[in-house]
Write a structure and sequence with these properties.
The complex is a heterotrimer of chains A (314), B (503) and C (293).
Chain A lengths: L1 H28 L4 H5 L6 H10 L6 H13 L13 H36 L4 H15 L2 H15 L15 H36 L1 H8 L4 H23 L1 H15 L4 H10 L3 H29 L7
Helix pairs in contact in A: 1-13, 5-6, 5-8, 5-11, 5-13, 6-8, 7-8, 7-11, 8-10, 8-11, 9-10, 10-13, 11-12, 12-13
Chain B lengths: L1 H18 L4 E6 L14 H10 L4 E3 L5 E3 L2 E6 L5 E6 L13 H13 L12 E8 L2 E6 L6 H5 L9 H7 L13 E7 L3 E6 L13 E6 L3 H9 L5 E2 L7 H5 L4 E7 L3 E6 L10 H4 L1 H10 L2 H9 L4 E2 L22 H10 L6 E8 L2 H16 L2 E8 L1 H10 L4 E6 L6 H8 L13 H12 L3 H18 L2 E6 L1 E7 L2 E2 L15 E2 L2
Parallel strand pairs in B: 1-10, 1-11, 15-16, 15-17
Antiparallel strand pairs in B: 2-3, 4-5, 5-7, 6-7, 8-9, 9-10, 11-19, 12-19, 13-17, 13-18, 14-18, 20-21
Chain C lengths: L6 H5 L4 H13 L1 H19 L35 H37 L1 H16 L2 H12 L3 H28 L2 H9 L3 H37 L11 H8 L8 H28 L5
The chains are: A mainly alpha (314), B alpha+beta (503), C mainly alpha (293).
């Protein structure tokens, strides 16, 4: 197991380097000149020259990359071109917001997706199964930014129940924080709920067919006990793996959700940074998400191996 | 008796609200400001925060007259090359450092010489500055500069604590220390900027809030919804299309002021090979384009009639506006005739680049449709702002829909755009007469003399039309009814002196 | 590639009988049929857009700005007085085009790379796999946003960006399928007989990976349509005055209070067409699933 982990991590290193080179190259090929925007409306040539020098824009791109990589290795991801805050500090500031959103979305998704999946598998072939499937597919098919707009229209503009935006840090006012995050979390959670429901359903279906469920039933155990204690418990194993892999989807979904609800999180940070050509911020974020993503993948693989010892070491 | 009772009650209320209730004012901004260092900052929205954070040497009235702020008086010498300012006594910066002539010298030095200063061109005319005594400072100019006082009414005139700038250097913006009514408390990017009342402020009695919180909420509908829900006390830059709904709301007050800026189409008349096209080479084609636009209808369709149609760098309500050239009525036939005269009876096709945001693309689609009827086919090239700007300055464009946020002094709205070699003259328009008019306008401090120069410049601009002006935005603020004492200013700032909240 | 393979061999691994059974299964699934009908409907609308009796999608009427649905304009009008119905119909073209073209880009680039990795293994596999992983590590939409910003905002560039971002899935799928096929006994014996590389790929690998690619492709079209709408929503896709559902939503969100219909229809349309492709993809998966007899 340790050897496996070590190998996976070793293999991940070139991947991380590749990501960083890729993003760095891509960004410096982006059209548009951030310095012109940064220089202000007057675009004073003297200012432009000073800024280019200061941010090393005059160096060849490989030199710029090496300088960045050298600093990154020492834990310095540079500063935001726009606000001059250190990138690492920015990420540290935004990450908890997105994590709160993602966790709430995941909780909502689990509360909807898993029971629906169990029910649908149990009632396979009936209208309940059919309806659950259509609803799940609808959840996957609805563009979440549109769902967000519709919810704002209905819940905030028409009914005035929940605030349309206005992020409140969890530490400041937990109740209000959860309240403001409810709508975005629901929007983000729908697609995840649908995915979870579908995975739970197929996992339940194969477990329900298995021998020990039949044995349990033969023993005369109550149906509910069989379903929850025997079947669901086993079916949850692959579902848990899926949840780790949904991390990327949550992050990507958060990009638009945060945009709609103006939540000052990770996703909004990255979109604004791309639009503002805030190179250091984009670079830092992609590096961090990349590492996190690879880490989650390794975790999922490890979990899978622990649960399925037969898996070959390919 | 009754009066006494009411007074007594009011006193009790005032006491409780003043003592028990820490009053917070929450303001919704359209964008998140950039770095909070007046020497480095470049955004309009940043200036809104500075209005509460950093006092300037001088300020403006809503009528754009220059009035004392940190400087209590000033005097020009005979030929307009020396400006002597008297400073306010007993002012301290947020860190307790004294504000004096030495501090002004240090601030001008930073604006001029700090590597990353964006203010260099604004204070370029200052050759030297010296502290005559503790409260008197003398600026010596290389040439007369009528625009300097107006610059001191903006970021170049904001006074930062010399101790703080020396210590923080380029990181000053992370913890700005000025001499304004509020001190910096905290900032969470894209979320909030919190300022706290500065108890030693020299006009502290005019400040009625313990804290001000600025919340960037880019979506105007959402901003308004938050105001209605009571999560905000006021907001700036409401979209004109939301005006009707805000005005219909009994709980809200709407305030407006025509801005100093404009939106226009900048045309490439001499910026590289892409200027070689009918539009770039023929003033008649540019005039035809201008005539094909129904500015009133454009204003009606996109801004519900709330903005101010325009055809000059100054709004029709400005004292600098040349009344001999009123906003033209749309005249398709005249436009076609001009085109035919110029040899394009079959019409022309031009590309216009536009920032890919909903409002500006909407404006250009309306113009596209209007110009089409006059035989001018417009192809739109939507670009992100950073790209648009880069292409524009490199001359890689035919026409570009851009705007200008506006300056207090008329010079700021036209000189750099129209003079040969002007820093933001992306048209690369060049005309000796225009250069003469605009340079002369800088030399005199007499408004009547300057007005003559600007009138001549506008006449020339109407003839050559390197920039086709479209409209002047109107600042729209919406306030909760319990906010009193707010004054709209054409510079779009929010000045909190005398503003209060009744509860 | 088929030119070098003898014609009968192509059909070999999937006998006609089985194919018919797949069609039978597909036909009997109500949800798959519903998906097919939805996709077909939007396809027809998109193709017939030029001949349908609606005003032009760019025709403006200043007196009809943001008017609610009426007889003259069944879906209402938009922010500069254009007919929403017409823009919806023409928007279908943009959405379907974006979905199909970007998936074609992803398939045409991804499948050969994946097959190459699975077939040659060793260093080729390692390099391709690392690249794929690197691409996968950046969340799909963030990658697409960065690529679209890099290429400049336009529908074509959005399609390229989405295609490139979707490519890794197909690399992975093709690689896994190729690896699986290569371990089959009959492939190993064929290899022993000395069949050439192209023969191996054409005769054994390609026919076996096509069904899962079709299923994945159909499902990815659904994702790609949402991605196009998202990019257009951020101002990076279709550019005005040409209509696209995502771009229409981008405008509509500014008029939620005054003109809610502007936000309603494009969203419903995206939802229905994406649902169609998802149902279709699910149906195809069930129909083509070899495990289920």
């Amino acid at each position: 197991m340790l050897a496996f982990l070590a190998r996976r991590i070793l293999i991940a290193i070139p991947t991380v380097i590749l990501i960083s080179i890729f993003v760095f190259g891509l960004q410096h090929l982006l059209p548009g000149d951030p310095i012109l925007v940064m220089a202000g409306e007057e675009r004073d040539p003297e200012v432009i020259a000073a800024l280019r020098e200061k941010y090393r824009f005059n160096d060849p791109i490989p030199v710029q990359y090496l300088a960045w990589a050298g600093n990154a290795l020492q834990g310095d991801l540079g500063i935001s071109l726009r606000t001059q805050q250190p990138v690492l500090e920015l990420i540290g500031e935004k990450l908890p917001v997105t994590i709160q959103l993602a966790v709430m979305a995941l909780i909502i998704a689990i509360l909807i997706g898993i029971p629906a999946g169990v029910l649908s598998a149990y009632k396979k072939g009936t209208w309940i199964d059919w309806v659950a499937n259509i609803v799940a597919l609808s959840g996957l098919s609805v563009p979440n930014f549109w769902l967000g707009i519709m919810l704002i229209l209905l819940v905030s503009v028409k009914l005035g129940w929940l605030p349309a935006s206005g992020y409140m840090p969890l530490t400041e006012d937990p109740l209000q924080s959860i309240r403001t995050m409810l709508m975005p979390a629901f929007v983000l959670g729908t697609a995840i709920a649908a995915t979870l429901m579908r995975h739970t359903r197929s996992a339940m279906l194969s477990v329900l067919k298995s021998d020990y469920v039949r044995t349990a039933r033969a023993k005369g155990l109550k149906e509910r006990v069989v379903l929850i204690k025997h079947a669901l418990r086993n079916a949850l194993v692959p579902v848990v793996t899926v949840i780790t892999l949904l991390f990327g989807e949550l992050l990507a979904g958060a990009v638009l959700t945060e945009q709609i609800f103006t939540i000052p999180g990770f996703g909004k940070l990255v979109v604004d940074a791309v639009f503002n050509r805030d190179y250091a911020v984009v670079q830092g974020i992609v590096l961090c998400t990349g590492i996190a993503f690879i880490f989650m993948n390794i975790l999922a693989d490890a979990a899978y191996r622990i649960l399925n010892p037969r898996m070959s070491d390919r | 008796m009754r009066i006494m009772k009411t007074l007594g009650l009011a006193a009790v209320l005032a006491a409780t609200s003043g003592l028990v209730h820490a009053q917070d004012l929450r303001i919704g901004l359209q964008e998140d400001p950039d770095v909070l260092d007046p020497d480095q900052s470049r955004t309009f929205v940043g200036r809104i925060v500075y209005a509460s954070l950093c006092d300037k040497l001088v300020d403006i009235t809503p009528e754009l007259e220059i009035v004392p702020m940190l400087a209590t008086g000033w005097e020009w010498n005979e030929d307009g090359t020396e400006l002597t300012m008297t400073l306010r006594e007993g002012v301290t910066f947020h860190d307790g450092e004294p504000f004096n002539a030495e501090a002004v010298v240090a601030n001008i030095d930073r604006s001029q010489n700090f590597e990353l200063s964006r203010r260099k061109s604004e204070v370029k005319s200052i050759e030297s500055v010296e502290a005559v005594d503790d409260l008197t400072v003398k600026f010596t100019l290389s040439a007369p500069d009528a625009t300097l006082l107006a610059q001191f009414a903006d970021r170049s005139g904001m006074m930062l604590s010399p101790k703080a700038t020396a210590e923080a250097g380029e990181e000053f913006g992370l913890n700005p220390v000025c001499a304004g009514p509020f001190t910096f408390k905290e900032r969470i990017q894209q979320d909030r900027i919190v300022l706290e009342k500065f108890t030693d402020y020299y006009r502290a009695d005019e400040i009625n809030f313990d804290t001000v919180t600025f919340l960037p909420i880019p979506d105007t509908t959402v901003r308004l919804a938050n105001l209605r829900a009571g999560d905000l006390d006021m907001l700036e830059r409401l979209a004109a299309t939301d005006l009707g709904s805000a005005e219909a709301d009994d709980g809200l007050t709407v305030e407006k002021a025509t801005s100093l800026g404009y939106q226009a189409m900048t045309i490439n008349v001499g910026n590289g090979p892409r200027a070689e096209n009918p539009l770039g080479e023929n003033a008649a084609v540019r005039q035809a384009l201008s005539l094909s636009i129904d500015r009133a209808a454009l204003n009606q369709v996109v801004f519900e009639g709330a903005f101010a149609p325009g055809n000059q760098p100054f709004a029709p309500t400005s004292p600098w506006y040349n009344a001999e050239f009123p906003v033209p009525e749309r005249d398709v036939e005249a436009a076609k005739a001009l085109l035919a005269e110029a040899g394009f009876a079959d019409g022309v096709t031009i590309e216009v680049q536009v920032a890919n945001n909903p409002v500006q693309t909407q404006v250009m689609q309306v113009i596209q449709s209007m110009a089409g009827e006059a035989g001018i086919t417009i192809e739109l090239a939507a670009k992100e702002f950073a790209t648009l700007l880069a292409d524009q300055s490199a001359g890689d464009y035919t026409a570009s829909q851009v705007g200008w946020s506006g300056r207090v002094d008329p010079d700021g709205n036209i000189h750099q755009f129209m003079t040969t070699g002007g820093g933001i003259n992306d048209s690369k328009y060049s005309d000796p007469d225009m250069d003469k008019f605009l340079n002369e306008a800088r030399l005199s401090t007499d408004p009547a003399v300057r007005k003559e120069s600007y009138d001549a410049a506008i006449a020339k601009q109407q003839e050559d039309m390197p920039i086709v002006y479209l409209y002047h935005p109107v600042w729209i603020w919406v306030l909760d009814n319990d906010i009193d004492g707010f004054t709209p200013y054409p510079d779009g700032m929010i000045r909190l002196h005398g503003v209060s909240k009744t509860e | 590639m088929t030119a070098v393979v003898d014609p009968q061999a192509v059909a070999d691994p999937l006998p006609p009988r089985r194919r018919n059974r797949a069609w039978e299964k597909f036909r009997r699934s109500p949800s798959a049929l519903l998906g097919g009908v939805l996709v077909l409907f939007f396809l027809i609308v998109a193709i017939l857009a030029p001949v349908l009796p609606v005003p032009g999608p760019a025709e403006t009427d200043w007196s009809m700005v943001r008017k609610p649905p009426s007889w003259a304009h069944p879906f209402g009008t938009d922010e500069i007085g254009r007919d929403m119905l017409s823009r919806m119909i023409w928007g279908a073209q943009a959405s379907l085009l974006a979905g199909v073209v970007s998936v074609m880009i992803a398939v045409l680039l991804g499948v050969p790379l994946g097959m190459l990795a699975g077939y040659l293994r060793g260093w080729t596999d390692a390099v391709i796999s690392r690249f794929t992983e690197a691409l996968l590590a950046a969340p799909f939409l963030i990658l697409a946003i960065a690529l679209a910003a890099f290429l400049g905002p336009s529908l074509t560039n959005a399609m390229i960006a989405i295609g490139l971002s979707a490519m890794p899935i197909f690399v992975r799928l093709a690689r896994a399928q190729t690896l699986a096929v290569m371990t089959e006994d009959y492939v190993e014996s064929a290899r022993a007989v000395g069949i050439g590389h192209l023969g191996m790929i054409g005769r054994y690998i390609l026919p076996n990976i096509i069904p899962p690619i079709i299923v994945q492709g159909t499902l990815t079209i659904a994702t790609a349509i949402i991605a196009e709408a998202s990019l257009s929503f951020l101002g990076l896709g279709q550019q005005p005055p040409a209509p696209s559902w995502g771009a229409m939503l981008n405008i509509a969100k500014n008029f939620l209070e005054q003109a809610p219909w502007m936000a309603l229809y494009p969203g419903v349309a995206i939802f229905l067409v994406v649902l169609g492709f998802n149902l279709l993809g699910d149906g195809l998966r069930d129909a083509l699933d070899p495990r289920d007899s």
